[in-house]
Specification:
Blueprint: E1 4-11, E2 21-27, H1 36-51, E3 55-61, E4 73-81, E5 94-96, E6 100-104, H2 105-114, H3 119-136, H4 153-161, H5 168-173
Parallel strand pairs: 2-3, 4-6
Antiparallel strand pairs: 1-2, 1-4, 5-6
Helix pairs in contact: 1-3, 2-3
Length: about 170
């Protein structure tokens, strides 16, 4: 499987709402195992989830035309890989650093098959969760909501109906 690479620029420029943060994301590659409608639906849900916290995501196709300059931009790459590395935690759906996210397709697929009506919502919530890790750091898990370390069956059902909320600590940091 050829991985999907998404490159995001986190813009430090002041957007329309002074408290907002804009994330510009570029889809670089496409793989046949990932349905385009699923990816677009996941992006739409990630948008909705992150907008609730003042983060705007602009998804684009192709490579960025210019590199980030100075401190006003930070590059974030999202790669969807076919399988988790042996070193990954058994429950992890992804790994994230301040500059990159790797989503594990072999772990996302069974979860989405178990909840087929929520597949786009699950993918979008995972993307939003990991983008927040990239922005806020690895210790940003909370006891409830979007940044919960492990989502329950009830959380997954809620994702289908609505979106998981930012937890109290995440909301405070925004």
């Amino acid at each position: 499987m050829r991985p999907i690479l998404l490159t995001a620029f986190v813009l430090g420029l002041i957007p329309a709402n002074a408290g907002d943060l804009a994330v510009e994301t570029y889809v670089i590659g496409v793989t046949p195992q990932i349905d385009g409608a699923l990816l677009l639906g996941g992006q739409a849900r990630a948008n909705a989830v992150l907008q609730a916290g003042g983060i705007r995501v602009d998804w684009k196709r192709g490579r960025p035309q210019s590199a980030p300059t100075g401190l006003e931009r930070t590059r974030l790459t999202i790669e969807i890989v076919s399988s988790a590395p042996d070193s990954a935690s058994p429950t992890a759906l992804a790994t994230t650093t301040s500059t990159s996210i790797r989503l594990f397709w072999d772990r996302l697929t069974p979860l989405m098959r178990t909840h087929p009506q929520a597949d786009r919502a699950i993918l979008g919530h995972v993307m939003a969760h990991e983008i927040l890790h990239a922005l806020e750091g690895p210790g940003s898990h909370e006891d409830e909501g979007l940044m919960k370390a492990t989502w329950t069956r009830e959380d997954l059902k809620k994702m289908q109906r609505t979106q998981l909320a930012f937890g109290p600590h995440t909301a405070d940091e925004r």
